[in-house]
Amino acid sequence: TRAASIRSAMARHAGPRLPLIVKNLIPTLSGVFDSQRITTTAFFAELLNSNVVNDLILLETMMDNMTGRQKDACMLVRMLALRGLGNIASGSPEKVRKHGAKLLASMVNGMDDKDDPHNLVALEAMSSLSKLLDHVEERDVQSMLLHIAIRIRPFFDSEQPDLRQSSIVLFGNLTKFSERNCEVFFEQILNGLVTLLLHLQDPKPEVVKACKFALRMCGPNMGCEGLCDMFLNHLQEDRSLHYGEFMNNVCKHLMQSYPEMLNRLILTNLFYFKSNWVDIRAAAPMFIGFLVLHVDEDHCQQVDLDQLISGE
Length: 312
Description:
68% of the residues lie in helices and 0% in strands.
């Protein structure tokens, strides 16, 4: 917050002096004291939120310095550096397209950070990537699309609600780029579908909102008009949802369009029988019940009754 206030004041009142200030601060980014590197990185990150750095031809210099902080020994510096790179989407959105490949690579590296026990760097990378996706070239996303989708999938069930929310929102945003890799990305949608539908019962409203968004975004890519319409009509942000009725109709469409998916959908639901969240634990057997109710006899053989009865 302090860095944001300083940045705002600097952008308003110290414009012509900013290049010299930035030049004098750059050496502290590689200094020995964590506190100095954290403070300078935080200030630069907030400065990148303003178009003044673009006006003063500072963007490339500051972006390069933020990129250089990705291997900093201090986790907070790495996190703030990603925040700064993500802030370019607000401060200089027209420049994101030019530097898209570099910015995307930084976010992917952040998600793969090996020294991030609480996933703070990964969280910042996912949040920043969602901001950048509105401004990057499709070709720059294509090469990383599958890797990102697979990488964020485990966060859907994280104990940390902000990780659940950010990863699910990012997944929804990724679907905009799935057209050229339709079949490949469709597989990722199927991998996440059960989880997204069950987390409509998540205890955190912000996660439910994220799931509604992601499912609305996934709908047009699923090749089922009825399902797409259901997601668009029933999963509006502030609309209340009659979950049981909704899931009954969703399962009807799923079994009409993808009956061969029955066993796969059941197996994923079985995993949630042991969920820590009681409403999700309750939703999983209901989901299975509706799937079995609507599948035709020809596909019933897919169901492993012993496995289903044991709930494992």
